[in-house]
Amino acid sequence: MEGQKLLQLAGLIFVVLVVLVVFGLVLNIAISIASILLVVAVIAGLYFLAERLFGKRR
């Protein structure tokens, strides 16, 4: 009986660890995508700003 409870506890801990790892990976990927999008947005913003500033002089 005691061994079964221990096994259930170990299983629960394992499931929690797997969920945490998966959550961590998803969070990491989301942060990576967000930072890439931020960089792209900044570059696009600078490009359009430069185009607006220097485009009139041509």
Written account of the structure:
The protein has one helix at residues 2-55. By secondary structure, the protein is mainly alpha-helical.
Quick overview:
The chain has 58 residues and is an all-alpha fold. Helices cover 93% and strands 0% of the residues.
pLDDT < 50 runs, ≥5 residues? none
**Largest sheet geometry:** none
Judged by helices, strands and strand pairing, the structural class is: mainly alpha
N-to-C span: 85 Å
Residues in helix, %: over 70%
Order of helices and strands: H
Instruction: Bin the strand percentage.
Output: under 5%
- Count of distinct strands: 0
Shape: rod-shaped
The radius of gyration is 25 Å
Number of helices: 1
- What does the average pLDDT come to? 93
Observed structural traits:
93% helix, mainly alpha, 1 helix, 58 residues
What's the arrangement of secondary structure elements?
Layout: H1 2-55
